[in-house]
């Protein structure tokens, strides 16, 4: 049995338990003969599939945007730290060489 036939069979079983939005519920989801699919059921299946795909796409897009925002925040922090270090390096070259005054931003020990 092909994947399409299996999917149609599963769709038919699930739709038989509920009322078809297009029909009256009598025979809803059943094919007219062994090889033909009811167009309303086919359209409904396609709509459900596309909606599912759209939902997954939206979810993935939200995750990507969230990660991009996090990365932008991290880049902004890095840029600020680099700017602080450049300013610190400029201040060192402008001042006389005194070990007590050469403390990097944040007061950290550069030798560790």
UniProtKB/TrEMBL annotation:
Keywords: Coiled coil. This is Heat shock factor-binding protein 1. Belongs to the HSBP1 family. The keyword Nucleotide-binding does not apply. Residues 1-40, 90-112 are annotated as: Disordered. The keyword Coiled coil applies. GO terms for cellular component: cytosol; nucleus. Residues 61-88 form a coiled coil. One of its GO terms (molecular function) is transcription corepressor activity.
């Amino acid at each position: 049995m092909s994947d399409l036939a299996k999917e149609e069979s599963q769709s038919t079983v699930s739709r038989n338990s509920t009322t078809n939005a297009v029909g009256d519920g009598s025979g809803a989801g059943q094919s007219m003969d062994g090889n033909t699919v009811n167009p309303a059921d086919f359209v409904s299946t396609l709509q459900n599939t596309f909606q599912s795909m759209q939902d997954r796409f939206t979810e993935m897009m939200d995750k990507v945007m969230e990660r991009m925002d996090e990365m932008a925040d991290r880049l902004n922090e890095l840029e600020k730290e680099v700017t602080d270090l450049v300013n610190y390096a400029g201040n060192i070259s402008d001042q006389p060489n005194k070990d007590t005054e050469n403390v990097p931003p944040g007061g950290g020990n550069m030798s560790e």
